[in-house]
Design brief:
Blueprint: E1 4-10, H1 17-26, E2 31-36, H2 40-50, E3 55-60, H3 65-79, E4 84-87, H4 99-108, E5 113-120, H5 126-143, E6 156-159, H6 160-167, H7 178-188, E7 193-200, H8 212-243
Parallel strand pairs: 1-2, 1-4, 2-3, 5-7
Antiparallel strand pairs: 4-6, 5-6
């Protein structure tokens, strides 16, 4: 069975979220909006969107961070009977013309995670671009593999069953560390992944919640935890590499 939806974490993106939802509904993809304790003005916009067909709204009373909101949305997607979920950012940075391409790739390979790796334009903040390079290296070390081409692009299709199995059994990062953390942990479980390039623009509504120092420190802490997790799993990882 392949029954996909979109999961969109929302924190004060009232300007862009309507455009994102319109684009997804136009491609017949149901939307699950996760209000991560947004301001009343954003909450009002989300309430209006939730009155539309195929739009579901989950509201968090306390801000959980991007990862916490995504995990809430993935659980809601499974509860509603969906099998796969396309993670989409609410700020309009992802190229939604690629939705059909990602969903078709997922339909052709339902057991695989379909991951975007970004083609940036000039709008990308240089500080975030440089930090990505360091993250790439740490992810390759922590997986003992070059399989993960980009762990920070949040445009991806999750097969819900294996993803929720990881979320329910591990302490996955709840904030900007989520995107890399979940991919490394899925890689440790030999999760098939397929990669599609996609354009990324920063951002449609001019709102970014990435805090350069705080979130880079959080991501560095995550890589440290993952490194020691890799060391503990080293015999199993090497055995799987040998078998394949």
């Amino acid at each position: 069975m392949h029954n996909p939806c979109a999961v969109i974490p929302v924190y004060n993106h009232e300007t862009a979220i309507g455009t994102v939802v319109d684009a997804l509904l136009a491609q017949h993809l149901p939307c699950i909006l996760v209000d991560d304790a947004s301001t009343p003005s954003c909450a009002k916009v989300l309430d209006a969107l939730a009155e539309r067909d195929n739009v579901h709204l989950v509201r968090l009373t306390l801000n959980q961070g991007k990862g916490g909101a995504v995990m809430t949305g993935l659980r809601e997607a499974a509860r509603l009977g969906f099998s796969h979920a396309l993670q989409v950012d609410a700020d309009g940075q992802h190229d939604l013309h690629d939705v059909a391409r990602f969903i078709e790739e997922s339909r052709a390979h339902p057991d695989a995670m379909i991951c975007g790796y970004p083609l940036f334009d000039e709008s990308v903040p240089k500080g975030r671009l440089y930090a990505r390079y360091l993250t790439h290296v740490m992810v390759w070390i922590n997986t003992l593999s070059l399989q993960i081409r980009d762990s920070m692009c949040g445009f991806r299709v999750y097969p819900l069953a294996p993803t929720l199995a990881v979320i329910d059994s591990a302490r996955v990062g709840k904030r900007m560390d989520f995107d890399s953390d979940i991919l490394v942990r899925l890689s440790w479980r030999n999760q098939p992944m397929r990669w599609l390039q996609t354009s990324v623009h920063y951002p449609l509504d001019g709102v970014s919640h990435f805090r350069l120092f705080h979130d880079n420190a959080l991501i560095s802490s995550m890589h440290t935890r993952l490194f020691f997790g890799m060391v503990l799993r080293l015999p199993l990882i090497l055995w799987r590499r040998w078998r394949t």
